[in-house]
Design a protein that fits this description.
Number of domains: 3
CATH topology of the largest domain: GMP Synthetase, Chain A, domain 3
Length: about 210
């Protein structure tokens, strides 16, 4: 819950400054509501009134993430622990807990959808682009390792039989892993075909080991 302070001072600017000092932040990170602009009174003495402001600290990214995810998990009737990790070029939100696997869904579809919505909310409220990765018990790392093994296994078959193979439909993230794994392969290349959400990767044999 964002913290708010009501502050009184001779001027609006002074009241805002004092409130920011107490909150331990600066004016760029707060919302200001002017309750009373104050006045100097008659001759600057009689009827003098101080300015009064309400200063509310804007929610940080961690608060935005928690405020978005908690109600969803309550509706799903699951208890999830959130570990929010700020990395150099993105934020990873790692979820752990009992029965947390329901958040993954079929082939990670529920997790991907939730990550997409969380990213929209974070970037809209934070005011600047931040890449957000939502993970459940290291599912994404395990899935990536599985896809890399799959890509190499399929490449071996294509090389042996010199016949293209088409993989099952995958989301853009998973297709990128397949493409990346095989991008420098000597005997195969890859391309995506079809329309979302049924877009697939085709692993093709390169005649003579040369790129098409």
């Amino acid at each position: 819950m964002p913290k708010s302070i009501i502050k009184e001072a001779k001027t609006v600017d002074e009241a805002i400054r004092l409130a920011c000092e107490e909150l331990g932040t600066d004016i760029d990170n707060v919302d200001v509501e002017i309750i009373n602009e104050g006045n100097k009174g008659l001759l600057g003495i009689i009827g003098n009134k101080n300015a009064v402001v309400k200063v509310t600290q804007k929610p940080g990214i961690d608060d935005i993430i928690v405020d978005f995810l908690r109600p969803i998990f309550e509706k799903m009737e699951i208890t999830a622990n959130l570990d929010i990790i700020h990395e150099e070029d993105h934020i990873t939100v790692r979820l752990t807990g009992d029965d947390i696997g329901i958040v993954i869904g079929r082939r990670g579809e529920t997790l991907d959808s939730l990550q997409y919505l969380l990213s929209l909310v974070v970037n809209r409220k934070a005011g600047e682009y931040t890449r957000v990765v939502l993970d459940v018990a290291d599912y994404r790392q395990k899935r990536e390792e599985t896809l890399i093994r799959l890509a190499n296994r399929v490449a071996d078959k294509v090389t042996r039989y010199k016949k293209s193979l088409t993989l099952e439909p995958m989301n853009p993230y998973e297709r990128r892993i397949i493409h990346s794994t095989l991008q420098n392969h000597k005997y195969v290349d890859t391309q995506s075909i079809g329309e979302e959400p049924n877009r697939k990767v085709v692993v093709r044999y390169k005649q003579g080991g040369k790129s098409n």
